[in-house]
């Protein structure tokens, strides 16, 4: 039965294998294979329904051997349905996980080559995820009626991209990788990010620029 189940659920295994073979990237969304899995689930389910309806129509119980064979086939189909569903869900969830990780790693800007490998539904999911995250960030700093109108964080919200990792250094030495003009730090100090220039800046101001390729760390110095 195991061999038969694997043959039926081969499309689901192919989906999982495609991600296993490409662990560090987001391969193109395989719509053809996903649709094939969905069709297999529907077809197997309908076959089980027909089998039960046939048994129900034969109420005399004259053919116990045939009844046993039907139940065995139904069981094989159901196991295959469950396997295909698990593989399909694993494929979709792993892709969502990779998209989300790339978003945070790239400072919110997913590369175009990655976007080209995403499905229409994944683009919609990412848009909703961005909106929810943006709304959450803006909640910090809004007027809190329960605190007599006091504002949190000065009413400026919070940029979560600046706090991806727990800070272990207050100040870091960074080098500008390209000419980016003037940049004002959270301390109110303005520096000119000229290519090759080295600055000692607050860590929280640099993390997002490092992820975007504007700056690179030279070394880290405690304050």
From TrEMBL:
The keyword Nucleus applies. GO terms for cellular component: GINS complex. Keywords: DNA replication, Nucleus. Transmembrane segments: none annotated. Residues 57-139 form the GINS subunit domain. Pfam families: PSF1_C, Sld5. It is found in: Nucleus. The keyword Nucleus applies. SUPFAM superfamilies: GINS helical bundle-like (SSF158573). It comes from the Eukaryota. GO terms for biological process: DNA strand elongation involved in mitotic DNA replication. Residues 172-217 form the DNA replication complex GINS protein PSF1 C-terminal domain. Component of the GINS complex. Required for correct functioning of the GINS complex, a complex that plays an essential role in the initiation of DNA replication, and progression of DNA replication forks. GINS complex seems to bind preferentially to single-stranded DNA. Belongs to the GINS1/PSF1 family. This is DNA replication complex GINS protein PSF1. It comes from Meloidogyne enterolobii.
């Amino acid at each position: 039965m195991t061999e038969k189940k694997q043959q039926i659920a081969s499309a689901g295994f192919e989906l999982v294998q495609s991600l296993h073979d490409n662990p560090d990237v987001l391969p193109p969304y395989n719509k053809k294979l996903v649709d094939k899995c969905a069709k297999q689930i529907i077809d197997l389910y309908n076959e089980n329904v027909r089998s039960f309806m046939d048994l129900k129509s034969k109420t005399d119980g004259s053919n116990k051997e045939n009844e046993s064979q039907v139940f065995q086939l139904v069981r094989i189909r159901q196991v295959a349905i469950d396997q295909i569903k698990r593989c399909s869900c694993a494929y979709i969830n792993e892709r969502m996980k990779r998209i989300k990780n790339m978003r945070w790693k790239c400072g919110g800007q997913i590369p175009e080559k990655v976007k080209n490998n995403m499905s229409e539904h994944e683009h919609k999911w990412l848009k909703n995820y961005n909106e929810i995250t943006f709304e959450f960030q803006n909640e910090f700093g809004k007027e809190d009626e329960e605190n007599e109108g006091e504002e949190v964080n000065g009413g400026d919200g919070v940029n979560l991209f600046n706090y991806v990792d727990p800070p272990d250094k207050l100040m870091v030495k960074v080098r500008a990788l390209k000419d980016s003009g003037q940049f004002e730090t959270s301390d109110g100090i303005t520096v000119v990010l000229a290519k090759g220039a080295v600055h000692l800046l607050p860590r929280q101001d640099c993390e997002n620029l490092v992820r975007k390729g504007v700056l690179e760390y030279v070394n880290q110095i405690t304050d």
